[in-house]
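Most newcomers find our protein records easier to grasp once they have seen one. There is nothing in a record beyond a sequence line and a structure line. Getting from the letters to the tokens is the skill we practise here. An example says more than a description, so a record of this kind follows:
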Amino acid sequence: MIKFIMITNSPGLAHMAELNGVGRIFVDLEQLGKKARQGHLSTHISNHSTDDVALVKYALEKAELLVRLNPLNKHTHLEVEQAINNGADILMLPMFRASDEVEEFARMVDRRVKIIPLVETNGAVESIKNVVNIQGVSEIYIGLNDLHLDMQMKFIFEPLAIGLIDKIAAVIKSAGLPFGFGGIARAGEGIIPGELVLGEHIRLGSSSVILSRTFCRGIDLKISSGPDNILATEIQKLENSAKKSKLRSEEQVESDRRRLQMLVEDVVKSRSNETAI
């Protein structure tokens, strides 16, 4: 099954998430350059801190703790040491543009924890064949938000619709590494429904996906079981959707892929018209 990832610095939510099927908790320390890139969008920019790493780690029993650091900078070595000392199981390097940045990062980590390079620039895409062969890299994640911005596209799912993710995935799989990409909304929600995105994960052989902020809507941390447990209900919907997706015929897979493409094309066309006006 696909591993679900939740971004949170709340120890209570992190613990509840792992009890209900979330395999990886994501503490996001990235700040450098993010507001400049995404400040005009409705995307969430986290206010997580180094101290949150230790607090969340203490709350977890079995889920992995993923920590995204800042892009490579003069303080990266300190960030690496702090994150590892506070309990990170995996470190993520964002916004790299060349494989030598990943190599430098890998030397700092020195195999003490897993490394996930986050592919979200055109340069990262162009250097992916080298990145997958760097010692210490355990898997790859493709960030659709910054990637579509860096490539001057109109919509976050455009790299998926045009087949770019297919090409990147092929390189990653040929190196024998697992990968994930983008984020996913609740089933039946979002401009591109969660189940349709999940179908593409199944088609491409993805092993992980980040749950969108919508999964935290209406959650009561006091409710850990039963029909009122919203998080468990929504995750179960996705798990059921994943099972159905795996049973699709080739014709159904292609039909779902084309449906996603058409939805994305409609959004891109609409936004292009708005820009023209």
